[in-house]
Design the sequence.
């Protein structure tokens, strides 16, 4: 006698628990895999599926849950920007980072894409125009000689064994005097740029994250990034470097990538940012709303009164914070700090 399987009740699917926010973001990453595949530069051999998986890992690295709470549109934007440059996100690589910033206009966090120090050096070397590149910080106790003019020369002997910031009289390395970035170009030519401390401080003052943990815990790395960004102006023009600067200073993903997110080529707004926001639901598919839970409590956007704020323009191309957090400590701007 054939055993028959009992039919499921009609409302079985209705009783299925809604996905958590984490499950929603995982589904979102799977949906945009074709877009990532199209965005990745040819010839690098990067697997789009693994790229999306590592991007999800980068989101989960934020133990405070602020990246999970970011809008879907901003997460898509950050992942596709990283894919366009061929830079794997996450603190394990140091190429680029996903940073949550509070957007007062919408009352929630948004994910921003930022290139790291190693990301810029990677793009420079990948071009073939730059054989090698490096940066360092100069302190009082270091031996440094700078010659300008027709025969430019920079010599630096760091006092590695001494503690930076500690007064020289107490056996330390002393105060920071500046930072520099050097590059060996194709053909053996060496190019360097020195940035004095006053310019480094000016760049930090102009940064929207001048009080962020990145400056508190990794100040020297931020100084190096400022030097690299200024020095690259004197290197051969590298399209990837120029594009990286553009992307992290407000430029959006290529419009053809925006349109590829839309199912069956439906038309979208001419603005890439608006277009991405408009098609997020199509990219996600028919996903039910996430069920609030204790685990996903941090993923829910905070309830705040709407604040009318004037949008702050992006900083100049020597804004050190536009490089991101060098060690994966996610930078989050508290809206209360902005009012101080």
Sequence:
């Amino acid at each position: 006698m054939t055993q028959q399987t009992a039919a499921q009740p009609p409302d079985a699917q209705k009783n299925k628990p809604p996905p958590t926010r984490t499950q929603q973001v995982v589904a979102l990453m799977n949906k945009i895999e074709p877009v990532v595949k199209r965005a990745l530069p040819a010839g690098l051999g990067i697997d789009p599926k693994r790229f999306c998986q590592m991007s999800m890992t980068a989101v989960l690295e934020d133990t405070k849950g602020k990246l999970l709470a970011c809008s879907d549109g901003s997460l898509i934007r950050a992942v596709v920007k990283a894919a366009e440059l061929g830079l794997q996100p996450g603190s394990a690589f140091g190429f680029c980072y996903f940073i949550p910033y509070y957007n007062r206009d919408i009352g929630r966090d948004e994910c921003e894409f930022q290139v790291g120090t190693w990301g810029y050096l990677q793009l420079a070397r990948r071009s073939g125009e730059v054989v090698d590149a490096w940066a360092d910080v100069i302190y009082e106790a270091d031996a440094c000689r700078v010659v300008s003019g027709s025969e430019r020369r920079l010599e630096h002997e760091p006092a590695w064994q001494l503690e930076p910031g500690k007064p020289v009289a107490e056996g330390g390395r002393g105060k920071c005097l500046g930072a520099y970035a050097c590059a060996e170009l194709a053909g053996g030519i060496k190019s360097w740029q020195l940035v004095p401390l006053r310019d480094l401080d000016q760049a930090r003052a102009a940064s929207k994250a001048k009080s962020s943990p990145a400056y508190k815990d990794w100040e020297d790395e931020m100084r190096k990034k400022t030097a690299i960004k200024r020095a690259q102006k004197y290197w051969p023009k590298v399209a990837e470097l120029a594009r990286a600067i553009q992307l992290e200073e407000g430029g959006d993903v290529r419009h053809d990538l925006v349109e590829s997110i839309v199912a069956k080529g439906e038309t979208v707004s001419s603005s890439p940012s608006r277009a991405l926001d408009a098609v997020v639901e199509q990219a996600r598919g028919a996903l039910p709303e996430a069920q609030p839970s204790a685990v996903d409590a941090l993923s829910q956007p905070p309830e705040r009164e709407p604040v009318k704020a004037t949008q702050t323009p992006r900083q100049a191309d020597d804004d050190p914070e536009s490089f991101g957090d060098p060690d994966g400590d996610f930078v989050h701007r508290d809206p209360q700090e902005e009012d101080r």
About this structure: The first helix runs from residue 21 to 31. The two ends are 79 Å apart (CA to CA). Residues 119-231 form one domain.
